[in-house]
DNA sequence: CTTGCGTCTGAAATCGATTTCTGTAACGCT
DNA sequence: AGCGTTACAGAAATCGATTTCAGACGCAAG
């Protein structure tokens, strides 16, 4: 691999001059030409590792997400990418699989690779961002905010969304409305539950705590949770499902039980991914996933550029689909 | 950020000793203890950039894929991750969006960051891997192999899969079977078309070239392609769709046209992602996405470990779902 | 002709970890 | 006691780019 020294030698200049050519400082047009020719000749690609070591910062942004297989997060990733690339940064994705140790491993990588910044959808409420914060690395939380972290955040209004989704079921005449929530230690989940409760209360419906099932935000978890609800003594007549993938699981469980949606109502927080059939009996509240990503990226880029204002939280709306 | 020198000073040893403690070479138990205490005290995280610069190789593997929003590729990513992590490597994902210039940008990043290796599902037949190969970086192609690249590859048997999918339609009695293929410059697409042709020929059915539509392997492309087929003078009675996302688009187009699947048969290459309804009138050939990823990762890891044998190609089967 | 200023260049230090090479101490053996 | 061997530690070079500092040169003004 050709280095800046090889280029310098071939061009008959010093390494400093080669560096200057690639960094836009003043160089004779003559020298610029010679250096560029030499670089092309040698197929020179600057060594980013050396550059990063010297500058103590690279132009890579890490996006840390809990589930790469969830289309919601991949759409979010697209939003991040669009903004970041436009600003000249590369984005790398890190999948934590909801595992805090994997997450902290990736955070260490981000720190020790001197990445420019991190956008993170935390694996848990208790995710520890201190490795980043202590070294005042630019960080933006997206979708989920770890408890007590005083950082920029971009989220959706989970309470309002949960209420809206549940209300759709109420309006359609369902009375005994269950909830399949996400993990108890994930912020978005507790808020969506709060929205569910609020909607029930507003409608004057009884809130039966046994109708709350926790699952894992995955397809299989939603499937199992719905099975548990069906086995209930007093079976619910509708279910508010707190994320897209669990809704898929819940619908599969219904199908396998020979029940078809209007019979049991389903409201999904987040549109069903890649659905092909007109949603009969399924209400959804849709999330601006891509916008979450791009908003987070914009804030991160400002921080990287040196913005020092107080951390702010941007809340986007979840919109009920009619 | 604490460095190895800070740790050395606090522990009263030389930087070399600190390095040895973290790399498992022989050090007095006494020194080991002192160094570890000092490191913990200072919250020391080794600077990977410096390490990589010196060693000329990091322990990060890049996975370059054309469409992060396609569940097939994210499942593949999971396969890669599982293997790579087990071997102590971190995986970063790079999304090229089928764009060769973005792709080559990421390949340059992989080279100039001295990543340990690259697994790539190429954006095109004509993708240029020479930046990697010239510097003999470990590379494995997965899913798609750029034309003429003499490298390790893990693919599915696209011809057999295309034939099997088409044959399912033939067996169900359809006679005028169209094909919605992917981009003309993508290897998997041309092979799946070949499978479609072979099945038609084997069944003695006429092969009408106007029944072949090219699209982009995306949902919207599949939608538009199906609309074009419906507008045909002699409308097809079934369609072989060459990937999962286009099948979603095609089914949506059918739905919007008021046609329901058994009326027009659909065979999808790749299972429908997150489907919730029992597939009526939709045949699928399912792909071992995760296995593709893990097989590719295993080969890459062997190469990284120094394997020098001839490049080999592993072909996995696409299995018709009954 | 000298002074002064501006423009451009190169030498060398720097970022932080790894590793070779050299040196010292301790130990076992004859 | 003398010698060889092993085990460990430290000094210093190294990876490749950036950047400071100082020097060289040209040109204009006095």
Distance between the termini of chain A: 58 Å
Stretches of chain A where pLDDT is under 50 for at least 5 consecutive residues are none
Helicity range of chain A: 40-55%
Largest interface: A-B, 53 and 53 residues
User: What form of chain A results from the Cα inertia axes?
Assistant: elongated
Provide the number of structural domains of chain A.
Answer: 3
Query: What's the order of the H and E elements of chain A?
Result: HHHHEHEHEHEEHEHEHEHEEHEE
Q: Main beta sheet of chain A, described?
A: 6 strands, parallel
Taken as a percent bin, the fraction of beta residues of chain A is 15-25%
Arithmetic mean of pLDDT of chain A: 92
- What is the quaternary state of this protein? homodimer
Q: Tell me the total number of β-strands of chain A.
A: 12
How are the strands of the biggest sheet of chain A laid out side by side? 2-1-3-4-5-11
* Alpha carbon gyration radius of chain A: 25 Å
What does this 3D model show about the protein?
2 copies of one chain form a homodimer. The first copy, chain A, is an alpha/beta fold and 322 residues long. Chain A has 3 domains: 4-46, lambda repressor-like DNA-binding domains (434 Repressor (Amino-terminal Domain), Orthogonal Bundle), CATH 1.10.260; 55-156 and 289-316, Rossmann fold; 158-286, Response regulator (Rossmann fold), CATH 3.40.50.2300. In chain A, 44% of the residues lie in helices and 17% in strands. Chain A has 12 helices and 12 strands. In chain A, the strands form 2 sheets. A 6-stranded parallel beta sheet of chain A has the order 2-1-3-4-5-11, with helices on both faces. Chain A has a 6-stranded mixed beta sheet with strand order 7-6-8-9-10-12, sandwiched between helices. In chain A, strand 6, helix 9 (187-202) and strand 7 (212-214) form a beta-alpha-beta unit. The mean pLDDT of chain A is 92. At the A-B interface, helix 4, helix 5, strand 2, helix 6 and helix 11 of A face helix 4, helix 5, strand 2, helix 6 and helix 11 of B.
């Amino acid at each position: 691999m050709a280095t800046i020294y090889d280029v310098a030698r071939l061009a008959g200049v010093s390494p400093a001059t080669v560096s200057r050519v690639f960094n836009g400082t003043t160089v004779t047009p003559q020298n610029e030409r010679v250096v560029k020719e030499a670089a092309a000749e040698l197929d020179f690609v600057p060594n980013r590792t050396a550059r990063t070591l010297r500058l103590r910062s690279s132009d890579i942004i890490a996006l840390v997400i809990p589930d790469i297989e969830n289309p919601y997060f991949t759409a979010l990733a697209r939003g991040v990418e669009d903004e970041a690339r436009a600003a000249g940064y590369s984005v790398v994705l890190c999948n934590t699989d909801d595992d805090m140790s994997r997450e902290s491993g990736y955070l260490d990588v981000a720190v020790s690779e001197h990445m420019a910044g991190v956008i993170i959808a935390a694996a848990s409420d208790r995710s520890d961002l201190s490795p980043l914060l202590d070294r005042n690395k630019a960080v933006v939380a997206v979708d989920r905010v770890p408890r007590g972290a005083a950082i920029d955040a971009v989220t959706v209004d989970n309470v309002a969304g949960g209420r809206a989704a549940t209300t759709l079921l109420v309006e359609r005449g369902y009375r005994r409305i269950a909830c399949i929530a996400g993990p108890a230690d994930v912020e978005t989940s507790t808020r969506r539950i709060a929205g569910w409760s609020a909607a029930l209360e507003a409608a004057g419906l009884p809130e039966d705590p046994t109708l709350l099932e926790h699952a894992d935000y995955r397809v299989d978890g939603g499937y199992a949770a719905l099975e548990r609800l069906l086995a209930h003594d007093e079976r619910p007549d509708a279910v508010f499902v707190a994320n897209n993938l669990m809704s898929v699981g819940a619908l599969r469980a219904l199908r396998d039980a020979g029940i078809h949606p209007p019979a049991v109502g389903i409201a999904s927080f987040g549109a069903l991914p890649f659905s092909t059939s007109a949603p009969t009996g399924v209400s959804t509240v849709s999330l601006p996933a891509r916008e979450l990503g791009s908003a987070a990226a914009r804030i991160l880029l400002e921080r990287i550029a040196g913005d020092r204002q107080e951390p702010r939280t941007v809340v986007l709306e979840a919109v009920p689909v009619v």
